[in-house]
Target: CENP-V/GFA domain-containing protein
Amino acid sequence: MAEPTPTPAPASPTPAAEPDGLVIRCQCNAVRLRTSTLRPIGIAHCHCTNCRLQSGSAFGTSVYFPPAKGFYPLEPSLIAEGGPVGYFSHGTDSGNTMYCYFCRACGSRLIHAVILADGTLRQTVSVKGGAIEDPDGVLDWASAKHIFVRSAVIPLSPSWETYETTIANGPTKK
Ligand SMILES: [Zn+2]
Ligand SMILES: [Zn+2]
Model:
């Protein structure tokens, strides 16, 4: 079976990114991208085993933005051979395919995007939280939801909003 395209067509016409989106960058600065909007749809700290592996830490932070021209799908030149961004894909428990993008030079994980079983792009693209420059403090880290806490390896604060696995109906659901 052919590898699915890493730059699928979104389900609906893609708007252009806002010019003042937040800068996404890798540790070595070889990759600089920009989020589609200044404010995210939602933020989640994920304690699943895959997020531990990708972050090399106790959990991974996902900051969700809608797809948009200039953000995601990524420009083909970025992921072409010799481009700065590498990727790989893996199947998820829910039967979808997750594409994981990283800097080819320093290895920083940058973006995760999910292609649903019907071939369309999930309308919440996850940017790895630590890769976002946020000089004006628009990201509300403290209100982030904690997901997949069933596999958490750190103590959970009673003040956190926690979910055993995913949040039903998506990351923005209260
Ligand atoms: Zn880098
Ligand atoms: Zn996770």
Residues 23-151 form one domain. The mean pLDDT is 91. The first helix runs from residue 49 to 55.
